[in-house]
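The freezer alarm interrupted the setup, so I double-checked each line after restarting. Inputs confirmed:
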Amino acid sequence: MGWLGNLLGGSAGSGAPSDAAAARSAEWEQALQSRTLPSFVEARLEAAASGRTPWLSTMTPIELAMVRRHGIRPVAMVSGTCWYHYGYSWTRGHAAGWHAALDRLRAEALAAGAHAVVDVKLRTIDLDVGDSMDFTVIGTAVRIEGLAKPTVPVIATVPALEFVRLLRSGIVPTGIAIGAQYDILSPAVDLTGSGLFRGWRNQPLTELGQFWESIRRFALAELKDDARRQGNGVLAHTHFGQLFKIERDKQPPQFLGRHIVVGTVVHDRPSAANAPIEISTVVDMRDDESPLLSPRPHGHNAYPVDDEEDGPI
Amino acid sequence: MSITNEIPPHAIERLRGLRNEGHPGGIFTSDFSVNEFLLVRKAGFEPVGLCVGTCVYHVGIQYGSWGKNQELEVLSQAMYHARELAMTRMREEAREMGADGIVGVQLTVKRLEWSTEVLEFIAIGTGVVHAEGHTGFKGPNGQPFTSDLSGQDFWTLLHAGYRPLEMVMGSCVYHVAHQGFFRSMGNVGKNTELTNFSQALYDAREIAMERMQHEAIEAGAEGVVGVDLHEGSHAWQAHVIEFFAVGTAVKPISTEQDASAIPDPQLVLSVNN
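Predicted 3D structure, all chains:
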């Protein structure tokens, strides 16, 4: 409770930030501009890296046991935040926001001497400020024993348990890839309206369908390009897409489609594909919801849904 | 904080009756599921009773300047102090029943209907004792340890060679500056970072994390597992957000266990559907 004492004895209640707070704020400003870290963040991460202070980790006990078993140790919790305003494009803004946040996360991980950051979550806080959003990535920095000092830490959205399982199978998670695309369709006629014939017939809306498909394809192609720079595969996608109809005055409505895909890039060595993994099959005798069958919560809260499907086909 | 140490006589009476000060044969209460109960026993511990601590707290008022990023210390302090009081009372109850520690602690905040300034903080968990009377599992200063780990996680933690010390937390209530009209007009139609906001969130999270770490240092921990960092706004003015970090500080049981001694889990595939 040491810091509470500081608070009680400090500027509490005055409402005005103290000199220390002002100095802190100036350091943040400087750090964000010069793409570095404030000295106090660097000091915290260095202390954690050298083992002088306790490590902080999002890992559960079983994850802790597993990573220790494989010579991996948690070092610190690291994060990256970028509040991005997307006036010109929502989609490009989202891609830019995530990339900026990831760069900052990487900088913190490097300061902590970490080889990797696992369990990275895409988060946002619930505060509505115009056309802008908070892009936050947060995860646990880890060090792998016996490896040289890292130059570029690996970023993985998978939790520690899955990280270890991937490594054991010879697959190395290498980073995060992002693909995003938006487009506007301005058709000459009303594509969904109840025209004279349209209302009664079963028919595919070809123009709209092609438009939406091209957006998805483009986003996935960008994801692939981003992934190619880092590895040879992408796992654990989080994807989010929206299709809007924009009514216009005296003209047929426009359509705006946007799609964003985020995933963990892996480097899979074909030679490792034969690594023996022993799996036993079990029949779970429970009648109610079984922990073996129910999906684990993924912890990202940046997008309201993980996929757009409304239900089984 | 002298009030925290006073437990009404009838409560002490109840605690004594529960389990004759930790000896088998009495009745215990707990919110364990059957699996949790079995695993806690397997880990060498016996539940003694449910420990509860509550604190109804009047949170003072502090407003942030409209255009300024700043911590609202009065609120940070209130949120932390109230949680600490609830936790201390719960721990006090555990100590009275002779528990070595409390597992499965749930810490909740509830807003009361009739006021926006009064919050109720509740800490609840199951007090446990070591079945063979081993005293080495106590938390800092011989107090019962506290942990938000479930019975399953408690078993796993001990098997990984660690023991829980105490729940550590850090809180920071922060006012995120509003954007001036001219500034926001300047951003219309542009894709750009709003560094002012980035900075506010960064700073608030950093403060919450530093405070939690400070607690971990004071507890003599080797590390903190299961850290959960979340944001909440308890009906405060817009742009006021609490960043709250909480986790369980842990320490190696004696000397750190050799990594090869940790068993590999077996992979199973459920073939029900």
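Quick read of the result. Chain A touches chain B through 76 residues (CB under 8 Å).
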